[in-house]
Batch of 3 targets.
Target 1
Amino acid sequence: MNKDIAILKVEGLTVYQGSYLAVRDVSFELLPGTDTAIVGPNGAGKSTLVKAVLDLIPRSAGMIEILGRPIARLGRLRHLLGYMPQNFIFDRSFPISVSELVGLGWEKEAKKGDLFFSRLWRQDHEKSAAVEEALRRTDAYHLQYQAIGTLSGGQLKRVLLAYCLVMRRKLLVLDEAFAGVDVQGSADFYALLNELKREEGWTVLQVSHDIDMVNRHCDRVLCLNQSIVCTGKPEIALSPQNLLATYGPGFSRYQHQH
């Protein structure tokens, strides 16, 4: 893909939550292979923004294009998007294994001319191989037969990443992917994410509260408080002046010690 063609383009995005203006006139674009973080205080509209970008909630105004197409006309290209929500809410008693959950992320069209039973066998074989490979690459293969309701927070994050990995993706959207994971777990997950991003050529858009990790690992930062306060490389966007303008007085930046 041409490196100058945006994977995601957003222009004038405005979103209301009821009568509350959650996101106002936001515009930005993501180039292939970049890792962009959205930072800002609680209630700034970060999660609302990424949900609107993925067309999961309605927008009041604005244009969204993914892979050069309006989001509403993305069609089968939607499988090129991966999404990890902040809270993966499910019934922990539901009897589904890790491998079954990851397999739900696999979708492939049959080749024309395939006989019915040949197609079924081929698809099942390819799916099983893809699930196994995704779990191995996320260090979650040993969990394949485990019920998802028994997973720890960190284990579940890796399994959800395997779900995104089981099919080829172009854009990976993470909404507070490290919520509920301790500092070391977050660092390990970031290392894994960076490795997979390089190997897969993912473009990443992530919401994060961890300014230190964003500064270390992301290419670009959007500082958001309903509208974009500033944007740029981490060393520019995360300057004390810009953080003060985004978060307001009293913001304290925590530095990891490892």
Note: The chain has a mean pLDDT of 87.
Target 2
Amino acid sequence: MIARRNLFEQLPTVALNPDNFEALYSAEQFRTYLINKIRNASNRIYIVALYLENDEAGREILTELYETKQRNPGLDIQICVDWHRAQRGLIGAVKSQGNAQMYQEFANNYDHKIPVHGIPVRSREVFGVLHLKGFIIDDTVIYSGASLNNVYLGYKDRYRYDRYHTLENKTLADAMVSYILDSIITHSAVHELTNESRPTTKELKPAIRQYRSSLALSSYRFDSQQISENEVAVTPLVGLGKRRNNLNRHIVNLIAQAKEEIFICTPYFNFPKSVSSQVKKALKRGVKVHIIVGDKTANDFYIPPTETFKTIGGLPYLYELNLRRFAKLNEARIASRQLSIHLWKHDDNSFHLKGIWVDKKFMLLTGNNLNPRAWKLDLENGLFIQDRNYLIKDKFEREFDCILQHTQLICCYKQIEKLDDYPLAVQKLIKRILRIKADRILKQIL
């Protein structure tokens, strides 16, 4: 345990004034805050997201960016999105040119262009995507797991619930911008999606392999600062792949050093083995564990029984079966309240929260889903916060009160549906998956 604590103490840190850290509590607040920051930007705007969608909310954000650029042509604006996701339509939709068509349209309609960089983490989307998080506007970092479209921004009547935090700190903002400039957008594998003539993924395969290797060795670089008793320590972390993944290593260490209490948020209950093992060890040593996970109906892949069922709709049920097995194995701990499983559900909205909070003083803000895909395939990052003097504890407590507002506490594993309770089409699919043992593969890549 001492060695693990020393590992955290050896991390380079950014000193953050607690007054410059805030949590936002809804998709609507996030959207309003983001638009206001874009409109008032004076120096730089760096947007990194899995996707910037061609829908009403996506167009609104891109319009705000372009209008701000026209007013201030010297403003440094860079957008990074996943190469593959940007060039295809939605799953189940008709074939299209994807969001890249919108990026080209905007570039053709304005005098001062904004580059949209396509980031190919792997030569096929299923084996790895850009899952880096963090928007940098001037000296403010806006950190959320959300991408940019109608549902993430609560544009209409439905929202996808995420976490949203703002950190105003020049050193942190500079470090995250430098990483984007030095490690992300300068490689030969990266091309602008605003250009109609761009290479195919097949042509880029050798460059993508080199790019992935360089990303796996990359890190945020900054001069470490001393942390006073009136400040909070922040360390940006990045990771890609199973080996030498600094982010994964610190996630495991974070859970392993817990003494009293752990809060874990994940949209898909499918822990990597190392995380599952540390959670099990934490329970054995008496740590109180809270797991906050979306109900299967709040999963973004869920298909209501009233709609035509597609294979992808089986995923939420597979995750729920994982959760039921876990709850059954830990029935005694659930009964004693040492383990609390909170199922989130609010009307027909969806759940996309991630993060870990340990002993009310260590927090990881991350887009990492804490699943095998995030562990091995996607480019992920996070902000590790050490709040040893509980300077921002009240802010996190208010946030978690808000999160728990729409959750149901599981008192017995039997509250969670079993396979026989599922619609017939789902039962047939899952039985077939289990029979050929395909669930092991699916859990690694989805």
Note: DSSP finds 14 helices and 19 strands in the chain.
Target 3
Amino acid sequence: MTAAGEAHAPSWYADSVPGAPLREPLTGDLSADVCVLGAGYTGLSAALTLAERGYRVVLLEAHRVGWGASGRNGGQAIVGYGCEVDTLEHLVGAEDARALFEFSRDGMRLLRDRIVRHQIECDWRDGHASVPIKPRQERMLRAGLIDLAQRYDYPLQWWDRTQLRGQLDSPRYRGAMFDPHSGHLHPLAYAQGLARAAEAAGAVIHEQSPVLQLIRGPRPQLRTAHGTVSADHVVIAGNAWLEGIAPELESRIMPVGTYIGASAVLGQARAQSLIRNDMAVADVSWALDYFRLSRDHRLLFGGQASYSALPPPGLRGVMTRRMRAVFPQLADVELEYVWGGYVDITRNRAPHWGRLTPNVYFAQGFSGHGVAAAGLAGQVLAEAIAGQAERLDVFERIPHRPFPGGRMLRTPLLVAAMSWYKLRDALW
């Protein structure tokens, strides 16, 4: 993964969008109403919402807009969060869980609205299928479908194996829970579109400006090597890349490496034969596979995870074998690109959004479900800064515990836990 200030990590995403001119790094001391750390979806959404309300907003990004997970992810925009609704019910009760799920639907509507309103060309496509491999997974999905329809007023479609094969040419799956309201997009193009919209509304973005220190107080500051921004409010949206800025936040997330490949160009007919309705697909194993088609008729295939700073050994070969296990007809197809990045997970996989102090706000812990939820997070934080904190108050009621073991031991402990879940997926 690339060092501070460098261009985007090599990927099909980076190669398939026009290069954006570098925004000037921060130099000198500035004053603002709000200073935002991080130009991913959360920070850009907060900056856009606040600038549209007339706030003076300065956003500091260590690298380039969308450099982190927002520009490298699988592109699947899904209603909900990284945990299931029953987990939310256990954490905050049925009433708040219902409110949180409705907020996630707001997040999907917000994403769709911004694409249209700001004319963001990011290859949006409707439809997402969650697919089971094992009988246990099928039972879980069917029960969840009924629960979402009856208790959350969110009806989804169940496709049996035959219906699914009519849209997805893979023998691997037993059926599908299909959501027509979710979908997929080009993540880096979407991030760049949000940045342009925020700037058009009046926000100022400084790239290649890594924050070295958060200075808390009545008027907090973010300090870089070449300047500071003093503001009435600060938004921390660094997710997996905080690196000492707020230790109490870092202890409650775990950076996890996740990886994606892009196949050689398949041609329109061959690509469409794989996924006829152009939906996004993800299985429901703990170590899941997820995939979709690109606009230039490649298969984008994600999976694998690393709980250390290094990618798994033989990554390209492993990813290629997993792709061919899903689509045996691609035995002659290689992956032309393989790239990765970090997502931030919480122990309970629920979102961790709130306040560090009365004037320092944060959102993190998207746990692999951030494409729609991170945009919502930015808007929720912006609302709270503007004096409308009702939605943020609900998120703050979600309890979060630090990962055990501190910096030295939390990774091996998590690896041990993940090994158990992978074994469970393999056995039943």
Note: The CA atoms of residues 24 and 206 lie 5 Å apart.
